[in-house]
Amino acid sequence: METDKKRKIALTLVISFSVLAISFSFYFYQVFFSPNTLVDSDQNYMLKISSNDTYKSVSNKLYDDFVVNDLVSFGFVSRITGYQESVKPGLYTITPKMTNLQLVKLLRSGKQTPIRVTFNNVRTKEDLAEKITANMEISEDQFLTLVKDSVYIRKFDFDEETIMSMFIPNTYELWWNTSSEALFDRMYKEYNAFWTDERKQKAAALGLNQKQVSTLASIVQAESQQKADERPVIAGLYLNRLNIGMPLQADPTLVFASGDFELKRVLNVHKEIESPYNTYKYTGLPPGPINLPDIKSLDAVLDADNNSYLYMCAKEDFSGYHSFASSLAEHNANARRYQAALNKAKIF
């Protein structure tokens, strides 16, 4: 009898232990391998982990935004795998129904999702700061601090007037948490990649360095905002003026000098503005670009049309195109037609 009793106790213990083991194994499996992210959604979630985030702030963000369904199990897996002590900043794509183990592995790996940074139609450093940092962790102020730091930008062989030339408008893949310094390094790398030996040779043949090409391209771009196909012709005209020491007399430089980018009509009073950007008062190129010239504008200068034009005037039909002339008499006739059209349209 006593032997049977012992056997029953032993059997009970074995069964109880087996049940506990099975239960624990099932729970362990559930915790590690059951879906726990976006269980009721079919949309990805972009998790931004900033440089000063902690495990607690990350887990709170995941829970508050209904990304993680069971925060306790996520916390358990995070602790077991050491993620709580190794949070890595960045942008991560969390897909629906990821397991805790998959999610923690992703976050521990630091395998970020790159972002696309696009900037164009830029006039000022403030414009550039706003557009280039729009989808990044760094702030506009952090970027502006560097772009206006004359000592810092000297390492790239630029000054405060020419630094905008370093930024070639395009779309770039970057990490969301790229630092301001790393961003500058990347843009300098892209600048050097753009300036191939062929482009450098074309610039030299025109008697210009790379920064001067950017400055002239910015003027050409401003003069041809509506009709990009005119850019090589306009570039040829301005090169003709530079070659004979004739002032560029480019109205967009007066707009830049005035600081009034809403200015619709340049008047004689604007031609008296005291500024190195006033190309009516000073010959040669201004000290730097008046906007951020795009690649088409840069190449328009490098592949400028070989013409004899010295003058241009907006067409009186307001089509956005220009009337070009080689003589002052021809130009004055074009200008009178345009002025008459402005007066008729009451544009003052």
UniProtKB/TrEMBL annotation:
It is found in: Cell membrane. GO terms for cellular component: plasma membrane. The keyword Transmembrane helix applies. One of its GO terms (molecular function) is lytic endotransglycosylase activity. Its main location: membrane. It holds the Pfam family YceG. The keyword Lyase applies. This is Endolytic murein transglycosylase. Belongs to the transglycosylase MltG family. Functions as a peptidoglycan terminase that cleaves nascent peptidoglycan strands endolytically to terminate their elongation. It is a single-pass membrane protein. It comes from the Bacteria. The chain crosses the membrane at residues 9-29. The record marks E223 as: Important for catalytic activity. Gene3D superfamilies: Classic Zinc Finger (3.30.160.60), Endolytic murein transglycosylase (3.30.1490.480). Coiled coil: none annotated. It is an enzyme of class 4 (lyase). The lineage of its organism: Bacteria, Pseudomonadati, Bacteroidota, Cytophagia, Cytophagales. Keywords: Cell membrane, Cell wall biogenesis/degradation, Lyase, Membrane, Transmembrane, Transmembrane helix. Its EC number is 4.2.2.29. It catalyses: a peptidoglycan chain = a peptidoglycan chain with N-acetyl-1,6-anhydromuramyl-[peptide] at the reducing end + a peptidoglycan chain with N-acetylglucosamine at the non-reducing end. GO terms for biological process: cell wall organization; peptidoglycan biosynthetic process. InterPro entries: MLTG-like. HAMAP family: MltG (MF_02065).
